[in-house]
Amino acid sequence: MSASSALDDFTFYDPFDGMRFGPEQCFLCGTPTTPADFVPVFANWLMSRYNLHSRQIKLLDLSIVTYQDLRIPCCPRCRTKHVEPLETQVEAAAGKGVEALRSLDDKTLYLWLGKMFYGVLVKELLNELEPLAVPQYPLAENARMLRRFQAFFQCFQALRVPVEFEDFTPASIFVLEVDATQDDMPFEYDDDLSTLAFSIKLDNAVITACLVDNGIIQQAMRRVYQDANRPLHPVQVAEFKARVYYAAYILNVVPDYFPRSRKPGATHIEMDTLIDDITGDIFNPWENAAYGQSLLEMWKRWNIPLAEIMQDPEQPLSFLYEADGEPRQLTRYPEENQGNKK
Ligand SMILES: [Zn+2]
User: Fold this and answer.
1) 78 alpha carbon to ligand 1 midpoint, in Å?
2) CA torsion angle for 296, 297, 299, 300 (degrees, to 10)?
3) What distances in angstroms separate CA 146 from CA 149, 150, 298, 321, one per listed residue?
4) Looking at the predicted structure, is the pLDDT value of residue 337 above 80?
5) How far is the CA of 77 from the centre of ligand 1 (A)?
6) Which stretch of 50-64, 81-95, 220-234 has the lowest confidence by average pLDDT?
7) Which pTM does this prediction carry?
8) How far, in Å, is the centroid of ligand 1 from the Cα of 268?
9) For all residues of the chain together, what is the average pLDDT?
């Protein structure tokens, strides 16, 4: 049986209480761990499949780690009971492709993305706590950001605690399909930790998400997501991601979560949520100039200059839509031999 200090299955754990992110305790339940108790942030099946073990990632303090260096402490119970079954489920779906990934329920995808997001976040937070570190963008010093991480973690506990979300999904999650004939990047991952935006590409499936918005961005981007339900050129996928990341950036609310007390004999805990939008708007105003920066970043691979992106300051460059608002068909980029179609 588990150690006496272990939480029971229905008790929430809060590592932000005391900022307990170190290697001494399980990331999910807080049980004391030994150095041998860990799970990789990017699961072994992912690292093997995409050859990631020694590939490098640059962290916010500009230090370099490899994918295999990214690991979080995890007790044997949480590893075998919660983390590994989740990975097995997603691995099976990923092996079958986009449709199988889409058919996973939102909670499964949310927990899977959440585990990677949180693993990277913890690495960054621990780096910041090192006495010699000089982070470019300190995450731990911003109270609002910490509140957001904490809110995220409350829902993310659903990986261990049997939680049912009452009429909401904690996150916005989009699964896009890349046109395989225009694609040469089997794996890609990026994130914006401060806004909890996270994106990962598995062959021709791109999963992109904001992990703490209660589906608000998904709601706001309903039409764009519908229109993007077709094989897209990678430059179009990048634009879609820029929209999600920018929306996460201007999101102005942090949901509150309230686990209800468990009824006698109940096998799960119901989670309620409330968004206090009385004090302001749900989104800060959309500013095209700032959105243009987000496009510039996402389109880095294609070297599209800002001047071209912002040629019409009222309507930044789009590959998803024509100027008249119709979905744009793009078979290749740059569009050689097609004249200057716009
Ligand atoms: Zn544990």
Assistant:
1) 4
2) 110
3) 5, 6, 26, 36
4) no
5) 6
6) 50-64
7) 0.93
8) 18
9) 92
